[in-house]
Amino acid sequence: MTLSFAILTALLAIGLMALVFGVVLGFAAVKFKVESDPLVEQIDQILPQTQCGQCGYPGCKPYAEAIANGDEINKCPPGGDVTIKKLADLMGVEPKSLDAAHGQEDIKKVAYIREDECIGCTKCIQACPVDAILGAAKQMHTVIVDECTGCDLCVDPCPVDCIDMIPVANSTSSWRWDIDAIPIKQIG
Amino acid sequence: MQNSFDDIIEKLDNHELWDFPGGVFPAERKTLSNQTPIEKSPIPERLYVTVKQHIGVEGQIIVDVGQKVLKGQALTKSMNPFAVPIHAPTSGEIAAIHKHVSAHPSGLPELTVEITSDQQDKWTKLCPLIDYQNKPKMQVLAAICDAGISGMGGAGFPTHIKSSPKKDVEFLIINGIECEPYITSDDRLMREHAWQIRQGIDVLCHLLKPKHVLIGIENNKPEAIEALQVACRENPNYRICSVPTKYPAGGEKQLIQVLTNREVPAQGLPVDVGVIMHNVGTCFAIADAIFAGKPLIERVVTVTGEAVESPGNIWALIGSPVAHLLAHCKYKQAGQKQPNIIMGGPMMGFSVTSDLVPVVKTTNCILAPTDNEIAGNNEQPCIRCSACADVCPASLLPQQLFWHSKAKELDKAQDYNLFDCIECGACAYVCPSEIPLVHYYRIAKSEIRVEQEDKQKSDKARERFEKREARLIAEQQTRDEKHRLAAEARKQAMASNGNNAKDKIAAALARAKAKKQNASIVDEQPIAPTKVAPANQSEQEAKTEASDVSTKAASSNQRVQAAIARAKAKKAAAEEAVTETELKEKVDAGDLIENKPDVKQQDNDVKLVSEQSPQAKVNTQADVTDSRPTADVSQQHQEPNKADSKQAKIAAAVAKAKAKREAQKISNSDTASNPAPAAKVNSPQTKISVELAKTEEQQIDMKKRRIAAAVAKAKAKKAAEIAATSKEDKPS
């Protein structure tokens, strides 16, 4: 009698505990759910976001998805070797040199519209992937320099060829210390 | 746990200080320049006042080229808390506002106001704030900001921001260390203007309310220590601390460590450990601004080095080109193989790229060394001797930083706390391989900064790209939705019109029957044979019509009968001297109208075609029989009264449609000429007809109304024709 009672209480106790922990764990699984950082997001973080389409995909996110699905990592000329190296680190593959079929790494540029030649056709506005061109039909257009990614996509649609790609000017804040330091010598 | 205030005071009372790790003892070479009093320099002909001389944002320029300015007149206005104005250093004329070589290691041009001096040196009106103690703090801070004061020790942080901290200040430390070799500007300033420096400290105490003021001066400047001790004798709260000479004791974090043994956290500010530090030069400038109202337009600059004949300290106007100061001190350029001018000290300064580089608020020294004073660049590989680690005042591992910086492993360099490096140059000084270590750190730091900026920019670009995508999708969706709704509305309209059409078809059928009866009575033969040819045509029309309009409409039988009715009507119209071409036109008109997506147009179309019969009947009635009207009228009376007005409207609509068709024809045939007049001619007519029909509606009988409608129609037609002929005339 006592034996069966003991077994019963043990079973009950363990069952109760299992129930309680099950509920706690179930609650925790819902309440403290951690969104895992998906691979596509991580790749997208590395890509330079010029949205230029030189990789053959319509933007950086689609290329990130393609890389996650096994595409080559060396199709991004604006990112250059730095981006390829980072992607190689992330994907656990050997870094390759940039695929020349997709273009060469170039200095940073921004678009500039020669405003007196602009006819206001809005074609460049439609082409701009980051809405960095301001203007309206039959009104002069202009580029918001700070927002321009230098993707080149507005140059081709322009019917009057009034868009130039101008290299970004070097300023004291973006300067990279390429002079020699001043060496010091102890004078006897 | 940081040292408590009382512990620090107790230790200072015992004349004991702490120490910072590392440090070097380079040759001081200060006697070159600190033996003579500060001289006044002649006013240069041209001054180049850089718009941004501090950390923060530049002010807005408020002067124009060609404008005359007085000494001390503001050239820019502070529009932002982090903007500090600049002032005209002397009276003269604004020669240009353009980009000029800057006092920056890169020498890249920056926005500069160029002033041609008139040698009058005439002051603008000054407004001192002598009773500052009775003024609100904000006013004193504003006065400091308006005087253009930013830190004069090196970094150039806006003083008014540093003087309004959010936290309690235990120690106000005045930095008179000046630990770099050669530089003696603060030394001479303290010796000669200790009293005014103390006044500046008074102002800062009023603003900051520190518990204690520590004035740190290196023990290699006994005259300066004495002068300040005299000046501060009255105030027991001001303590002069003689700090052992060791480079870089003048670094902000190092001096805090020496005086209080507190360590400023990485990426933190001195105020986080209850300390605010100001340079003695800044205190002097504050006193000038508050008690004399003078903005910061000149500062003491040490011009020294063995390549100048008479080294010393000069009161240099901000904006004076380096060449002017060197000329004043008799620079011996001819003797130098590689003329090299350094702005700042030998440890942390930089070579200027042009002798037109202007003096800025942070310029404390211009060093013109001879060739044998400066070592050549003879970099050897790192031998891992770790001498650099021993002297690093920030306790970093310089060789590791060098390794990773050189290999461009920026993240690893950051792991070794690259950004805690104060770029003092102690490591490079002791390096037996003569590696310019600081240079590598600076490159790595700037690259990291650029990378971070790029990252920010790319994040922004991503956000904009995604927002644009979302917007395009949303626009597409709204467009699709609109199209769907329009299609639905059209379908609905068709369905309801279909019902109407069914009614009308039924009515037409009844009329046709009545007509047939009449016809049989009168025994008019010619109707039947002529019926055939147009019947085929109109049957086809009816079919297309029916397929479009009345999907749920009448049975095929009814449709056929309706078509017959219509054919009859057409035939009747044809009888009434209507040419075949006109008939064609009608079909055209139908086509034209059908092409229009507008629901109303289709409505008109239906009405136009289905109501052709009664219209035609009006004509035939006049010619042939008397009995028909009564039959017709009785037929019409079966329908509700609405039908009357409807008919009138229909007549108007027909007229309108015809007019429109004409107008379209005109516009088609003659695209160059504007169709507006024709349409205008027609529209009042149709309007009149509608009005006519409406006013007569209740009183006048069917017949009259129809005639009126017919008249209206005819008029519209005529007008259209006139318009057409006039249009045809025009091109000829």
Write a concise keyword list for the protein shown above.
heterodimer, A: 188 residues, two-stranded antiparallel ribbon, 4 strands, B: alpha/beta, Rossmann fold, 6-stranded mixed β-sheet, 22 helices
How does this model look, in words?
The complex is a heterodimer of chains A (188) and B (732). Chain A has 188 residues and is mostly helical. Helix content of chain A is 34%, strand content 7%. Chain A contains 5 helices and 4 strands, in the order ααααβαβββ. Chain A has helices at residues 2-31, 39-46, 60-68, 80-91, 123-127, and strands spanning 109-113, 133-134, 142-143, 163-167. In chain A, the strands form 2 sheets. A two-stranded antiparallel sheet of chain A has the order 1-4. In chain A, helix 2 packs across helix 3. The radius of gyration of chain A is 29 Å and the shape is elongated. Chain A starts with a helix and ends in a 21-residue tail after the last strand. Residues 179-188 of chain A have low confidence and may be disordered. Chain B is 50% helix and 10% strand. By secondary structure, chain B is an alpha/beta fold. Chain B has helices spanning 5-13, 137-146, 159-162, 185-208, 222-231, 252-260, 280-292, 322-328, 387-391, 398-406, 410-415, 426-430, 437-522, 527-548, 556-575, 580-595, 599-610, 612-623, 627-638, 642-669, 676-696, 702-729, and strands at 39-40, 46-50, 60-61, 68-69, 76-77, 92-101, 109-117, 171-176, 212-218, 238-243, 275-279, 298-304, 312-317, 342-343, 350-351, 365-367. Among the domains of chain B are: 1-30 and 127-293, NADH-ubiquinone oxidoreductase 51kDa subunit (Rossmann fold, 3-Layer(aba) Sandwich), CATH 3.40.50; 384-499, no CATH class; 530-674 and 684-729, no CATH class. Chain B has a 6-stranded mixed beta sheet, sandwiched between helices. In chain B, strands 2-7-6-4 form a 4-stranded antiparallel beta sheet, with no helix packed on it. At the A-B interface, loops of A face strand 15 and helix 13 of B.
